[in-house]
Each structure stands twice: as C-alpha cells, then as structure tokens.
Design goal:
Number of strands: 6
Shape: globular
Radius of gyration: 15 Å
Helix content: 25-40%
Distance between the termini: 5 Å
Strand content: 15-25%
Strand order of the largest sheet: 3-2-1-4-5-6
C-alpha cells in the first residue's frame, strides 16, 4: 500500500471487549487489531481512532470507562481520535477533511460492529471516492436475532466484496 494510506479503527472501545458486553470472538479480534495497529505505526501510516458516543444508559456514554479506547489499542501521541454519533463516521465527524489534509487516498478499515459502523463507514468512504481495504477478519459484531455474529460478518464481507479490497488483517501491509 502506498504512503497515502490511513488505518481507521472503528469503535474499538473498552465496552466492546468487556465480558459483560463483548462482541463475538473478541479475544482473537483484539490480537488481530493490535497487529494491524503495530504495522501501521511501524510504517508511519496515519492512524485514526473513531469512538462511538452513546446515549444515556448505553455502555459507551462519553466519559465512562466503556467509552474509552481499549487499553491495548490506546492512541499514541498525535493520533487522531474522533467521536461520532452515527454509524457512518463521515456523517458526523470531520474525518474527510482530516484525511484530505493528509493526502490520504486509501483507508484500511477494521473494528466494530460489522453490520453497523463498519458497513456504513465503508460505504461512506466509497461514496467519497476513497479506495478501501477492509480487514476481512478484522471486524465483528454481536449475535443477532436468528443469525450468529460470524454469519453477519460474512454477509457484510460478501455485500462489500465487489466494491472493496478484502484482506485478512495479518496480511495487510502499510509499506509501499
């Protein structure tokens, strides 16, 4: 990937990995996300953390422990952290302006939840003309009514497959 690539980590907040609220496969997912983050940093690629700002009673209310980025993925100095209130990060943040200012033309997307914020942010990035690489095993969600999380994630990958590049997280490189 070119140096004009940024890593977008979506909603990798403590509440998503808390045993009381954890998404499916949270342990292995966390390991894959840590590796992806490390490779992006090693290559000098910009990293953007997106944090969901939940409403009253949600496990990710701003300022609560569940809202914080997971401690194993903590942003480094200078890394951008954006708070959003919609599934499409581009809709309620200045992400597009930030990427444009950095000359970013390609984004690698990973995080949570597959069927909401990953899907919608990916579609938003495509609509704005970004080349998108989706970490095919770098996102997850919760079991839904009648479908397991793994099936939901697979359905999102299938839906987006013709429009994005999909690569397993451990095979994504940020070096030219």
């Amino acid at each position: 990937m070119s140096p004009k690539t940024a890593l977008l980590l979506i909603d990798v907040q403590a509440n998503m990995f808390d045993p009381a609220h954890e998404v499916a496969g949270s342990g292995p997912l966390l390991e894959r996300l840590r590796g992806l983050l490390e490779r992006a940093r090693d290559a000098g690629a910009p990293v953007v953390f997106v944090r969901n700002a939940g409403g009253e009673g949600d496990p990710d209310v701003p300022g609560t422990p569940g809202w914080e980025i997971h401690s194993e993925l903590e942003p480094a100095d200078g890394e951008l952290v954006l708070d959003k209130t919609t599934c499409d990060t581009f809709e309620t943040t200045h992400l597009d302006d930030e990427l444009e200012a950095r000359g970013i033309t390609r984004v690698v997307i990973a995080g949570l939840q597959s069927d909401y914020c990953i899907r919608e942010t990916t579609l938003g990035a495509l609509e704005l003309g970004y080349d998108v690489t989706l970490a095919s095993d770098g996102h997850s969600t919760y079991d839904g009514k009648g479908r397991k999380a793994r099936a939901i994630t697979a359905a999102v990958n299938e839906e987006l497959g013709a429009r994005v590049t999909q690569v397993p997280a451990d095979e994504i490189s940020f070096r030219g």
